Amino acid sequence: MINLKNINKYYYSEEETLHVLNDINLNVKAGEFIAIMGPSGSGKSTLINLLGFIDKKFEGTYLFEGRKIGDYSDKELSSIRNQSVGFVFQNFSLIDTLTVSENIELPLLYSGLSPKDCKGRVLEVLEKVGLQDKINKYPKQLSGGQQQRIAIARAIVNHPKFIIADEPTGALDSQTSKDILSFFQKLNREGVTIILVTHDEETVQYCNRLIKVRDGKVIEEEVLT
Ligand SMILES: Nc1ncnc2c1ncn2[C@@H]1O[C@H](COP(=O)(O)OP(=O)(O)O)[C@@H](O)[C@H]1O
Ligand SMILES: [Mg+2]
Fold this sequence. Notes:
Elements: E1 2-12, E2 17-28, E3 33-37, H1 44-51, E4 59-64, E5 67-68, H2 74-84, E6 85-89, H3 100-110, H4 115-128, H5 144-156, E7 162-166, H6 174-189, E8 193-197, E9 209-214, E10 217-223
Bound molecules: adenosine-5'-diphosphate and magnesium ion.
């Protein structure tokens, strides 16, 4: 599904050039559940933003389903992003002034679904994350774990081809983290491809492949069983 070939990326400032991704080669197959680990500042977020079509300023080739990302216009890329990727972040990134239902609907509005279909989809994913009763609440009325479940509902509502999760349990206590990771594992067993950044060794046991990143390089790839 994803094929990165010799990816290099630099951040330029007046004082220095930072070689943030250094010759990354990576293939992701549909159905994988990948953990990415590495020290803070090693380039993990930069790498997954690139994977999620947020960033197209890089050298090298990114093939998504056999097509070169560099060939798409920004508009096409936004549309591919909306259709293909779901994002989950450490701080949930929900919009506090919108209800749970409105937050989840956001990605659907871009895809031009009818209001009736939107409502159906929102109910479907809320049921999936077990929070149907929170449909009219605001994010701040929910616990951290519940907010993250809503963020996951938003990430899957468009039936994405893969999910990118940047330290999704970083702000949660250990039991809530386990619940969230079990939920990701369940989604993965239903066929959703997941790429997850973590600091925590224990998270790896939920995944089926581990990629270690250091100084912008992939230093180790391990297949877990
Ligand atoms: N927009 C940016 N401009 C300049 N430097 C950046 C930017 N984003 C990240 N960096 C730098 O790139 C390096 C890698 O960052 P990041 O990908 O966020 O690492 P990680 O997620 O592994 O902590 C860090 O040194 C960071 O300071
Ligand atoms: Mg990061």
